[in-house]
Target: GNAT family N-acetyltransferase
Amino acid sequence: MSIDAFRTDLACGLPVTVRPLTQRDRGALAEGYRRLSPDSRYQRFWVHTGEVMGEKMLDRILRQDPENHAVWAVLDPTREFPGIGAASFWRSENDPEEAEFSCTVLDGDQRRGIGTLLLATVWLAAFRVGIRRFTGYTMPENVSAIRWMRDTGAEAEWDGYKVIFRWRLDDLQPIPATPAGAALAERLSELAPKLLPD
Model:
Protein backbone atom coordinates (compact mmCIF):
# COMPACT_ATOMS: atom_id res chain seq x y z
CA MET A 1 0.00 0.00 0.00
CA SER A 2 1.43 3.40 -0.97
CA ILE A 3 2.09 6.24 1.45
CA ASP A 4 -1.01 7.98 0.08
CA ALA A 5 -3.29 5.17 1.19
CA PHE A 6 -3.79 3.96 4.73
CA ARG A 7 -6.04 1.90 6.96
CA THR A 8 -7.76 3.13 10.09
CA ASP A 9 -10.86 2.38 12.16
CA LEU A 10 -14.07 4.33 12.48
CA ALA A 11 -15.24 5.17 16.00
CA CYS A 12 -17.48 2.08 15.91
CA GLY A 13 -14.42 -0.11 15.28
CA LEU A 14 -15.05 -0.73 11.57
CA PRO A 15 -11.74 -1.01 9.66
CA VAL A 16 -11.68 1.21 6.56
CA THR A 17 -9.21 2.14 3.84
CA VAL A 18 -8.63 5.78 2.90
CA ARG A 19 -7.01 6.59 -0.45
CA PRO A 20 -7.09 9.04 -3.36
CA LEU A 21 -9.49 8.32 -6.20
CA THR A 22 -8.05 7.66 -9.65
CA GLN A 23 -9.43 7.26 -13.15
CA ARG A 24 -9.89 3.57 -12.39
CA ASP A 25 -12.58 4.61 -9.89
CA ARG A 26 -14.77 6.20 -12.56
CA GLY A 27 -17.51 3.57 -12.37
CA ALA A 28 -17.44 3.49 -8.58
CA LEU A 29 -17.73 7.29 -8.35
CA ALA A 30 -20.71 7.27 -10.69
CA GLU A 31 -22.33 4.50 -8.64
CA GLY A 32 -21.72 6.32 -5.36
CA TYR A 33 -23.35 9.42 -6.82
CA ARG A 34 -26.34 7.33 -7.93
CA ARG A 35 -26.73 5.96 -4.40
CA LEU A 36 -27.07 9.43 -2.84
CA SER A 37 -30.57 10.56 -2.01
CA PRO A 38 -31.93 13.42 -4.16
CA ASP A 39 -31.56 15.75 -1.17
CA SER A 40 -27.92 14.76 -0.61
CA ARG A 41 -27.13 15.30 -4.28
CA TYR A 42 -28.77 18.71 -4.13
CA GLN A 43 -26.94 19.70 -0.91
CA ARG A 44 -23.60 18.71 -2.47
CA PHE A 45 -24.04 20.03 -6.04
CA TRP A 46 -26.82 22.64 -5.51
CA VAL A 47 -28.76 21.50 -8.55
CA HIS A 48 -31.32 18.77 -9.09
CA THR A 49 -29.20 16.55 -11.30
CA GLY A 50 -30.87 13.14 -11.31
CA GLU A 51 -29.06 9.87 -10.61
CA VAL A 52 -26.49 10.01 -13.41
CA MET A 53 -23.23 11.93 -13.02
CA GLY A 54 -22.25 13.38 -16.39
CA GLU A 55 -19.02 12.50 -18.14
CA LYS A 56 -17.70 16.06 -17.86
CA MET A 57 -18.26 16.05 -14.11
CA LEU A 58 -16.53 12.67 -13.78
CA ASP A 59 -13.61 13.99 -15.84
CA ARG A 60 -13.35 17.11 -13.72
CA ILE A 61 -13.46 15.32 -10.36
CA LEU A 62 -11.06 12.52 -11.30
CA ARG A 63 -8.45 14.71 -13.01
CA GLN A 64 -6.12 14.56 -10.04
CA ASP A 65 -3.38 17.13 -9.62
CA PRO A 66 -2.05 16.60 -6.07
CA GLU A 67 -0.62 20.13 -5.92
CA ASN A 68 -3.95 21.75 -6.77
CA HIS A 69 -6.78 19.22 -6.62
CA ALA A 70 -7.19 15.88 -4.89
CA VAL A 71 -10.12 13.62 -4.04
CA TRP A 72 -9.88 11.10 -1.21
CA ALA A 73 -12.36 8.32 -0.44
CA VAL A 74 -13.19 6.17 2.56
CA LEU A 75 -13.78 2.54 1.60
CA ASP A 76 -15.30 -0.34 3.54
CA PRO A 77 -13.70 -3.41 1.91
CA THR A 78 -16.30 -5.74 3.47
CA ARG A 79 -19.09 -4.34 1.30
CA GLU A 80 -20.07 -5.27 -2.22
CA PHE A 81 -19.93 -1.53 -2.95
CA PRO A 82 -17.11 -0.28 -0.71
CA GLY A 83 -17.30 3.50 -1.19
CA ILE A 84 -18.92 5.29 1.75
CA GLY A 85 -17.66 8.86 1.39
CA ALA A 86 -15.28 11.20 -0.43
CA ALA A 87 -13.84 14.67 -0.01
CA SER A 88 -11.77 17.00 -2.15
CA PHE A 89 -9.83 20.21 -2.19
CA TRP A 90 -9.42 22.61 -5.13
CA ARG A 91 -6.69 25.25 -4.86
CA SER A 92 -7.84 28.79 -5.59
CA GLU A 93 -6.47 30.34 -8.78
CA ASN A 94 -6.43 33.76 -7.08
CA ASP A 95 -4.89 32.76 -3.75
CA PRO A 96 -2.54 29.76 -3.79
CA GLU A 97 -2.75 29.41 0.00
CA GLU A 98 -6.53 28.84 -0.11
CA ALA A 99 -8.57 25.90 -1.38
CA GLU A 100 -12.23 24.95 -1.56
CA PHE A 101 -13.16 21.92 0.54
CA SER A 102 -16.14 19.68 -0.19
CA CYS A 103 -17.30 16.41 1.30
CA THR A 104 -19.99 13.81 0.59
CA VAL A 105 -20.96 10.77 2.69
CA LEU A 106 -23.56 8.21 1.68
CA ASP A 107 -26.86 8.81 3.47
CA GLY A 108 -26.79 5.58 5.47
CA ASP A 109 -23.25 6.22 6.69
CA GLN A 110 -23.63 9.77 7.97
CA ARG A 111 -22.94 10.63 11.61
CA ARG A 112 -20.28 7.91 11.91
CA GLY A 113 -17.24 10.22 11.84
CA ILE A 114 -16.54 9.66 8.14
CA GLY A 115 -16.77 13.36 7.27
CA THR A 116 -14.37 14.21 10.09
CA LEU A 117 -11.94 11.53 8.92
CA LEU A 118 -12.11 12.93 5.39
CA LEU A 119 -11.67 16.53 6.57
CA ALA A 120 -8.54 15.54 8.51
CA THR A 121 -7.19 13.63 5.52
CA VAL A 122 -7.59 16.36 2.94
CA TRP A 123 -6.55 18.99 5.53
CA LEU A 124 -3.15 17.32 5.83
CA ALA A 125 -2.87 16.51 2.11
CA ALA A 126 -3.54 20.16 1.30
CA PHE A 127 -1.23 21.47 4.02
CA ARG A 128 1.54 19.29 2.59
CA VAL A 129 1.36 21.24 -0.71
CA GLY A 130 1.27 24.71 0.85
CA ILE A 131 -2.45 25.34 1.31
CA ARG A 132 -3.15 27.15 4.57
CA ARG A 133 -6.91 27.86 4.46
CA PHE A 134 -9.99 25.88 3.49
CA THR A 135 -13.25 27.46 2.37
CA GLY A 136 -16.46 25.45 2.37
CA TYR A 137 -19.97 26.32 1.28
CA THR A 138 -23.39 25.06 2.26
CA MET A 139 -27.03 26.01 1.86
CA PRO A 140 -28.67 27.65 4.91
CA GLU A 141 -31.16 24.80 5.28
CA ASN A 142 -28.37 22.23 5.68
CA VAL A 143 -28.42 22.55 9.45
CA SER A 144 -26.40 19.41 10.18
CA ALA A 145 -23.55 20.53 7.89
CA ILE A 146 -23.56 24.00 9.44
CA ARG A 147 -23.36 22.53 12.94
CA TRP A 148 -20.56 20.14 11.95
CA MET A 149 -18.48 22.88 10.31
CA ARG A 150 -18.83 25.15 13.33
CA ASP A 151 -18.10 22.27 15.70
CA THR A 152 -14.86 21.50 13.84
CA GLY A 153 -13.65 25.09 14.21
CA ALA A 154 -14.68 26.79 10.99
CA GLU A 155 -15.69 30.45 11.07
CA ALA A 156 -19.01 31.13 9.40
CA GLU A 157 -20.22 33.98 7.19
CA TRP A 158 -23.60 34.45 5.50
CA ASP A 159 -23.49 36.16 2.10
CA GLY A 160 -27.24 36.38 1.58
CA TYR A 161 -27.41 33.15 -0.43
CA LYS A 162 -25.08 30.56 1.10
CA VAL A 163 -23.12 29.99 4.29
CA ILE A 164 -19.35 30.29 3.84
CA PHE A 165 -17.01 28.50 6.24
CA ARG A 166 -13.27 28.98 6.66
CA TRP A 167 -10.76 26.78 8.46
CA ARG A 168 -7.18 27.80 9.26
CA LEU A 169 -5.06 24.76 8.46
CA ASP A 170 -1.93 26.18 10.10
CA ASP A 171 -3.57 26.93 13.46
CA LEU A 172 -5.25 24.23 15.52
CA GLN A 173 -6.17 26.58 18.36
CA PRO A 174 -9.62 27.46 16.94
CA ILE A 175 -10.70 23.78 16.99
CA PRO A 176 -13.25 23.79 19.82
CA ALA A 177 -13.66 21.21 22.57
CA THR A 178 -16.85 19.85 21.00
CA PRO A 179 -17.19 16.12 20.25
CA ALA A 180 -16.64 16.85 16.53
CA GLY A 181 -13.73 19.17 17.29
CA ALA A 182 -12.09 16.63 19.58
CA ALA A 183 -12.55 13.93 16.93
CA LEU A 184 -10.95 16.17 14.29
CA ALA A 185 -7.99 17.01 16.53
CA GLU A 186 -7.51 13.31 17.28
CA ARG A 187 -7.62 12.39 13.59
CA LEU A 188 -5.13 15.13 12.67
CA SER A 189 -2.75 13.85 15.32
CA GLU A 190 -3.19 10.25 14.15
CA LEU A 191 -2.77 10.98 10.44
CA ALA A 192 -0.01 13.63 10.50
CA PRO A 193 2.80 11.01 10.63
CA LYS A 194 1.24 9.25 7.63
CA LEU A 195 0.49 12.24 5.43
CA LEU A 196 3.05 14.92 6.27
CA PRO A 197 6.74 14.73 5.38
CA ASP A 198 9.25 14.27 8.21
User: Anything to note?
Assistant: The domain at 6-191 is CATH 3.40.630.30 (Aminopeptidase). Residues 135 and 166 are 5 Å apart (CA to CA). The longest helix spans residues 179-195. DSSP finds six helices and eight strands in the chain.
